Amino acid sequence: MAWVALIVAGAFEVFWATMMKLSEGFSRLNFSILTLIGMAASFFFLAKSLHALSMSLAYPIWTGIGAVGSIIVGLLFFHDHLSLLTSFFVLLLIIGIIGIKVTSGH
User: How do residues 20-46 score in pLDDT, each as one tens digit?
Assistant: First the structure.
């Protein structure tokens, strides 16, 4: 259950980052409120995951899910572009997240 909470926390991390982008510098109230709700939900589920997972495991995976998820949202919905070298480092980030999970023993 802790892993589910951690994945949900990571998904809310992507959600709030996306809503913050759409808030246009917190000038659009509805997206600004959704940003704050997403942040609260992300922290809530991260806290839940920390009941069973170590911080040294949960925190980097949470931020990694947020980072990679935000990159994917940026590419798909905001027409962001990544250089080949940047794409390589994103791949390394994904490999790192998987490696942390696989070697954690949880």
Answer: 999 999 999 999 999 999 999 999 999
